[in-house]
Amino acid sequence: MGAEKIIVVGGGPAGMMAAIRAASLGQDVTLIEKNHFLGKKLLLSGKGRCNLTNLSDPESFLKRFSKSGQFLRDAFKKFFNQDLINFFKNRGLELKVERQLRVFPATARANSVLEVLKKELFKNKVKIIYKTQLRDIFIQDNKVKKLLLSDGLILATNKIILATGGISFGFTGSTGEGLAIAKRLGHTITTLRPGLVPLETKQKYPKILEGLTLKNICLKFFDGQRQILSDIGELLFTSFGISGPLVLSLSGQIVDWLNEGKYVYVEIDLKPALSVEQLNARLTREFKLNSKKTLKNVLKNLLPKRLVGIFVEIADIKPTRKVNQINREERKKLISLLKGLHLDILQARPIKEAMITRGGVSLKNINPRTMESRIIKGLYFAGEMIDVDADTGGFNFQAAFSTGYLAGESAALSSYQLKAEG
Ligand SMILES: Cc1cc2nc3c(=O)[nH]c(=O)nc-3n(C[C@H](O)[C@H](O)[C@H](O)COP(=O)(O)OP(=O)(O)OC[C@H]3O[C@@H](n4cnc5c(N)ncnc54)[C@H](O)[C@@H]3O)c2cc1C
């Protein structure tokens, strides 16, 4: 049949799925990966367990993306969470659904996901070139013609799928060369910034509390005018500030506020289930029951032990004071701190420490129905290098797999179309 050669660059989830789909449609596919193995970031994902997708319904799913979610409608129509689940199940991988509808391999090992993808690449006869980087793409009449690799090899092709990822966790291979090439070819790259990233605080007490996780708390971030309220969940203190699921989820918005030059602070509601009045009643009761005990000891009934010392210091009350000596004003202060422990946000951690890169190839430059560039014919994009990003929970992988699938299919079908026309 003399199939067209399709070259996929980047052996992450997006590139692997693109190569598998194009090859399953009978195309001659070559996958180029600069590492000596595939899926380096995938192996780190979900703390080594790989949260590969989420079972939310389509509308709730799209809401977990920043503004750009609508762009993915066509990709999700083509290949969504249940399709991905079936893809793995049909190839023998058991999956399990955990809290918040997160889907993991039942083995709890990311490597099981990678093994299925590798087997499928092999089965579909995808050629893989390792330890080789894409250096450049050559264009003629706005169409892909050939590409240059780091070993000096030039490959002729009129279909390239770029899936080189973002620029976070660069040691895994995603260092942005694909984005630079796309830019040189005339695409707009929207500002690259960290997403799902820990935050640094002005106050130093998080360092003293490093490693402590506060459960069932709620965060309120402020920028002077606007505020965002988190769900109820966990906060982790780190050596430089705060992290944990609630912080990571809201960090994209906070980074945008900081980039606007806003003064941003957060208030930690340590007792979100209780109103101020209920908390007042609770404290009054505790103080009555334990009237001869010290404040420090009584607060241990309300707060994690490690937090108590710092909390009392911030309240500026002597920890050894007996609770029957705490006056009304001091009790009010304690309540206000329990409902809003304050931290000033200085900045986000650097992008290399972010779980994802926000920004990338502008959505205006990509046809959402095919993933083909609107500028260069025969050039397709997939995965994190596109300007889409989502919350934690398996949404980013699904976007990578779905855009990869669609790009692979579009490149393959357009090859047949070209041949029919020729
Ligand atoms: C610690 C961590 C945990 C995560 N956990 C989850 C999770 O559980 N669930 C989830 O949904 N998301 C998770 N993510 C996000 C997810 O890993 C990414 O969104 C996803 O890997 C993006 O896939 P991709 O294929 O677009 O890019 P990548 O996975 O980054 O793959 C890009 C590939 O391209 C290669 N490459 C780059 N440039 C070149 C070049 N010039 N030539 C040849 N090859 C090149 C790279 O070596 C790399 O292998 C996590 C991210 C991190 C950092």
Describe the protein.
With 422 residues, this protein is α+β, with helices and mostly antiparallel strands. The chain has 2 domains: 5-193 and 357-421, 3-Layer(bba) Sandwich (FAD/NAD(P)-binding domain), CATH 3.50.50; 198-348, Helicase, Ruva Protein, domain 3 (Orthogonal Bundle), CATH 1.10.8.50. The protein has helices at 13-24, 40-48, 58-63, 73-78, 81-89, 110-123, 177-184, 205-208, 245-259, 276-289, 295-299, 305-315, 328-339, 395-421, and strands spanning 5-9, 28-32, 53-54, 95-98, 102-105, 127-129, 134-140, 143-149, 154-156, 160-162, 193-195, 199-201, 213-222, 227-237, 241-243, 264-269, 341-348, 356-358, 379-381. The strands form 5 sheets. The chain has a 6-stranded antiparallel barrel with strand order 12-15-14-13-16-17. Strands 6-2-1-10-19 form a 5-stranded parallel β-sheet, covered by helices on one side. The protein has a 3-stranded antiparallel β-sheet with strand order 3-5-4. β7 (134-140) and β8 (143-149) form a beta hairpin. The model has no long low-confidence stretch (mean pLDDT 95). Flavin-adenine dinucleotide is lined by residues 9-15, 32-35, 40-42, 44-46, 50-51, 133-134, 163-165, 168-169, 173-174, 177-178, 355-356, 383-384, 394-397, 400.
